[in-house]
Design goal:
Blueprint (H helix, E strand, L loop, with lengths): L2 H13 L2 H8 L3 H15 L15 H28 L5 E6 L7 H12 L4 E6 L2 H9 L5 E5 L9 E5 L5 E5 L13 H4 L4 E3 L4 H11 L8 E2 L3 H9 L4 E5 L4 H6 L3 E3 L15 E6 L6 H21 L1
Parallel strand pairs: 1-2, 1-3, 6-7, 6-8
Antiparallel strand pairs: 3-10, 4-10, 5-8, 5-9
Helix pairs in contact: 1-2, 1-3, 1-4, 2-3, 5-11
Length: 306
């Protein structure tokens, strides 16, 4: 018994004809029939009811068919995984990213990657760092890009820093706060705050500033373009990394807010963006190439900014 015979048996069940099945498998009908007979001799029983016009499997044939499907599919998956691990221009790469990197860094890097490796299927998931870490642990993705502070001390994760991203507050032109000469953080909490899932350090800072035990934004979404639209059409104050909406700021459609009692270089407000992967797991060549591209694009953006 070998996989070839099992594939032939599956084909016979699909086509219900020795002639059509042999043609589909690209061999002669006598050779195909001998292969099925050899399989029956291997098991010591009849697998196909030849007296039935539809050539239905016997009860024994049904059992063999179920296992044959599992074995053939498993062999295909094994081959695909090995190919993905050994060849860059084959297979797939699955990774994740936070909402802010998904605005500019990741699309630019993916575009550059597929230009260099058009045969690699590239899939990226946009979500918050909590859900991405769970997806990584379930092996649904090979790595993700997010704030790395939560993962640096965890031995289960390996981190590679990218350029820190400046955290800022922003609003629409014409917001009531812009009429004031000087803004205090007390003014901030008079309006709804809109943000993605806030990292623990920034969450603690905002809780302290607001005088609360804990802090949660009024509007929370992982879809950054939607968050920006909410801010543009309301008096909500947005929180995010400047890089994600620098074009909106340059065009004047969004305005940065500066608080006199909040140092602009406060480290906890900056996102320590980086790449997170699992400790002890070998990344595929495609994943390693994607990470190299992300790092290169990140450095290019810093050079342009300077």
């Amino acid at each position: 018994m070998d996989l070839r015979q099992l594939r032939y048996f599956i084909a016979l069940n699909e086509h219900r004809s020795f002639v059509r099945a042999a043609d589909a498998m690209g061999i002669t009908q006598p050779a195909f029939s001998r292969s099925i007979q050899g399989l029956e001799q291997e098991f010591g029983c009849v697998l196909v009811d030849r007296g039935n016009k539809d050539l239905r499997p016997t009860p024994e044939g049904q059992v063999v068919l179920q296992h044959a499907l599992t074995l053939v599919q498993g062999a295909a998956l094994l081959s695909a995984e090995v190919t993905q691990m050994t060849k860059l221009d084959a297979g797939e790469v699955h990774f994740g990213c936070g909402p802010a990197p998904a605005v500019k860094l990741v699309p630019d890097a993916v575009a550059q990657f597929i230009n260099a490796h058009p045969k690699v299927r590239t899939c990226f998931q946009v979500d918050n760092w909590e859900k991405l870490s769970r997806a990584l642990s379930r092996e649904e993705i090979e790595f993700f890009i997010a704030d790395i502070r939560h993962f640096e001390a965890d031995p289960n994760f390996q981190t590679q820093p990218l350029t820190p991203k400046r955290g800022v507050f922003f609003c629409r032109p014409g917001h009531p706060l812009l009429a004031k000469e000087s803004l205090s953080t007390n003014d901030m909490f008079d309006y709804p705050l809109a943000a993605t899932l806030i990292p623990p350090g920034i969450r603690k800072l905002l809780a302290n500033l607001s005088g609360r035990i804990d802090f949660s934004p009024t509007i929370e979404t992982e879809h950054f373009p939607a968050l920006v639209k909410v801010v543009l059409q309301s008096n909500a104050i947005g929180i995010g990394t400047e890089e994600a909406f620098c074009e909106d700021i340059a065009q004047g459609s969004l305005v940065l807010l500066h608080w006199r009692n909040l140092p602009q270089n406060l480290e906890s407000m900056n996102a320590r963006c980086g790449i997170v992967s699992r400790t002890g797991f070998r990344l595929s060549p495609a994943a390693r190439a994607m990470i190299e591209t992300l790092v290169a694009v990140d450095k290019q953006k810093v050079s342009v900014a300077v």
